[in-house]
Specification:
Strand order of the largest sheet: 4-3-6-5
Largest sheet: 4 strands, antiparallel
Number of strands: 6
Helix content: 40-55%
CATH class of the domain at 143-237: Alpha Beta
Number of helices: 10
CATH topology of the domain at 143-237: Chitinase A, domain 3
Strand content: 5-15%
């Protein structure tokens, strides 16, 4: 994200001007004139820099690459946004606690991103750091894949009834087709295909890891998506990823840890009342965030 930059040079320049010696033979260089605003709205000037950032945010391109018509439309949009904001402030909307909190969170997030970019600019991970992170991730990541199927329902009571039907000899795939609210897997008898533990939400993966081949969960498993009855169909080992294939993810992890260590030192030096009971855990695992719902994983190469 491109950030709007602020300067704090005015006071320094004013002080320098006061201490400047009397006229000398050296010609005085003319100051660079300030850029005129792109537009003024009810007396408030909107700068060229703001317009450039807004144009790039909307179009993904610098304004110089846009047509005059596109630039005019973006300028009109910016004026509309400014007018709405001015009216909202007159109406006291920014004093609403919920809105004020959101604005403050956006401010904190923007500053944190800028601070992270600045701190990490000259701290690009070395190959040795990437290798060390690669080894750490391999040591903490199970090199296994599961093939499982599930029946997803809305309540624990319904899930218990599904378990009772299975214990009475009902066919898992048939129940999944009739009862599961995960329609994508239900049409395949609840089959989720092959997946690594990191592909599923933690409660789901943890439950699968405790099953033996052919077993199903006698106690329904709750996730944010509902209640699951899960059956493990098969297990296989998976090859570790090649180092070169995951260098980008490793680099992101190393930089996250560097910036976390930087903020950890701030926490240690800060006066915090009441003191924090725990420190945030370092990021673990090179796998991406869990998907929105247990879903068929892409078949892995044999």
């Amino acid at each position: 994200m491109k950030l709007i930059r602020y300067t704090a040079l005015c006071a320094f320049l004013a002080l320098a001007a006061c201490n400047k010696p009397a006229a000398t033979d050296k010609p005085v260089e003319a100051a660079t004139p300030a850029k005129p605003p792109v537009v003024t709205v009810n007396g408030k000037a909107l700068s060229q820099e703001l317009f450039e950032d807004y144009a790039k945010a909307l179009s993904g391109k610098p304004s110089s690459e846009l047509t005059p018509e596109d630039r005019d439309q973006i300028k009109e949009n910016l004026v509309r946004v400014e007018l709405i904001a001015q009216q909202a402030e007159k109406d006291g909307l920014t004093k609403d606690p919920e809105i004020a909190n959101r604005i403050e969170l956006q401010r904190l997030n923007l500053i944190q991103q800028a601070a992270a970019q600045r701190y990490l600019k000259d701290r690009t991970p070395t190959d040795a750091e990437l290798r060390a992170e690669f080894d750490a991730q391999l040591a903490s990541t199970p090199l296994v894949e599961y093939q499982a199927r599930h029946i997803l329902v809305s309540s624990e009571d319904v899930a218990q009834k599904v378990v009772q039907q299975l214990q009475g000899g009902a066919d898992f795939a048939g129940l999944a087709k009739r009862l599961s609210s995960d329609k994508e897997s239900a049409k395949n008898g609840g089959d989720l295909g092959w997946f690594s533990p990191g592909r599923m939400v933690k409660q789901f993966s943890d439950a699968v890891a405790l099953l033996k081949k052919g077993e199903y969960t006698k106690t329904p498993v709750q996730t944010q998506f509902g209640w699951h009855v899960i059956q493990l169909q098969n297990v296989r080992d998976r090859a570790p990823p090649a180092f070169d294939d995951v260098k980008q993810q490793l680099s992101q992890l190393v930089m996250q840890k560097k910036f976390k260590a930087y903020s950890d030192e701030m926490i240690k030096a800060a006066k915090i009342d009441p003191p924090l009971t725990t420190m945030p855990a370092p990021p673990v695992g090179a796998a991406p965030a869990a998907p929105a719902t247990p879903a068929p994983a892409a078949p892995a190469a044999n």
